[in-house]
Amino acid sequence: MKILVVSPYLYPQGSGVGRIASCVINELAAMNNHVVVVSSAKKNKVISINNLKIINRKPLFYFSNTPLRFRLFFDLTKIIKKNDFDFILAFSPVPYYADIAAIVSKISKIPYFLSYNTFDTRREKKFINFITFIHRNLIERFTFLRARRIFINSKYLFTANILAKCNKKLSYVTTGIDKQLFKPAMATKQDYILYVGPLNSGQYWKGVNYLVQAIKILSRQNINVQLKIVGSGNRVEYYQLRSKKLGIENVVEFLGYKSNEDLVYLYQNCKFLVLPSFDRAELVPTAITEAFACQKTVVSTKCAGIPYLVQDGIDGLLVEPKNSTALAVAITKLWNDEKLRQSLENNAFSKASSFSWNQMAQDIIKEIKSNLKI
């Protein structure tokens, strides 16, 4: 099959949506499909590897975490004229790219499918919330209506109001993980806890502020917990200054962006992962699935889709969002209780056995072929 994939980001950009898109397109290409991908990047470039062609186009500017390229419509139209695609697969919830792909699919009369992973586009910042309200009601509604199927990898989305009118189009597909890369180590150091995620203003809801505040609470109690923070973005300096102001710069280390190979080592050698997200946008954090695959557990929050992935007291510990004190208590508990930690780790690793990018791609293709009656 010939597939046009449209995604605002590809890994290592774009956090979750970028990673999902990258892994799925690689699996689709490995299944002998001819895949052409249009995405954003800092520089214009084209990469061709066997059945996979990636066309990166530099956006004109970014609005929050959304890359905007006004020529995208013409880019897609030109590519479609040169190829006889069987369908278009777009990745969201980052606006614009999926919306333009939906418009182009209607004009070119090509079947359109959507991978969508957010519970709600509303945000706490009023101006961004206003813009997303307009987008949700005037543009995204068309994108949903245009999609023949909408693929989700969290069952939490079956309850989302934003998808209520197209609930019959929803198809649950398993989440993925690269098990050849993310796997347990024979021996680990286990002398630090780990945060992995973006450090930018567009994803402030990852809760890093609450995490560093929790470390401050532990410091006051003379509990010596070392925190390593992996991630890049426009708020790195802010979080560094925040840590310094709290007087915990000696126990908080900012490592910046790390390749998958380096990231695996960090997962394998940490005591556990901490992810204090507090927004409904959080669904299936890749950091949690990767940690689980490395036989590590997590301290996270009872937020959005996280409880659908992490069972409190079974394979991780969950606390109320935006509660640094509760976060500090859970970190202390898991830091000191080795027996509990090992029990959670074993259950987490067992759960990770069901995660597969290949299975996710197969689920998507199976649904699409059924819809197209191929």
What does this structure look like?
The structure is a single chain. By secondary structure, the protein is α/β, with parallel strands linked by helices. It folds into two domains: 2-176 and 356-372, Glycogen Phosphorylase B (Rossmann fold, 3-Layer(aba) Sandwich), CATH 3.40.50.2000; 193-352, 3-Layer(aba) Sandwich (Rossmann fold). Helix content is 40%, strand content 18%. It has twelve helices and 16 strands. It has an eight-stranded mixed β-sheet, with helices on both faces. Strands 13-12-11-14-15-16 form a six-stranded parallel β-sheet, with helices on both faces. A two-stranded antiparallel sheet has the order 5-6. A hairpin with a 2-residue loop joins β5 (61-63) and β6 (66-68). The radius of gyration is 21 Å and the shape is globular. It starts with a strand and ends with a helix. The model has no long low-confidence stretch (mean pLDDT 92).
Anisotropy-based shape: globular
Q: From the 3D structure, determine the CATH topology of the largest domain.
A: Rossmann fold
For the largest beta-sheet, the strand count, sense and barrel status come to: 8 strands, mixed
Strand order across the largest sheet: 3-4-2-1-7-8-9-10
CATH architecture of the largest domain: 3-Layer(aba) Sandwich
Overall pLDDT score? 92
Number of helices: 12
Task: State the separation between the terminal residues, measured CA to CA.
Answer: 10 Å
Number of strands: 16
Helix content: 25-40%
| CATH homologous superfamily (4th level) name of the largest domain | Glycogen Phosphorylase B
Count of all domains: 2
| SSE-based structural type | alpha/beta
Low-pLDDT runs of 5+ residues are none
**What is the highest CATH level, the class of the largest domain?**
Alpha Beta
Cα gyration radius (Å): 21 Å
Q: Beta-strand percentage?
A: 15-25%
Order of helices and strands: EHEEEEEHEHEHEEEHEHEHEHEHEHHH
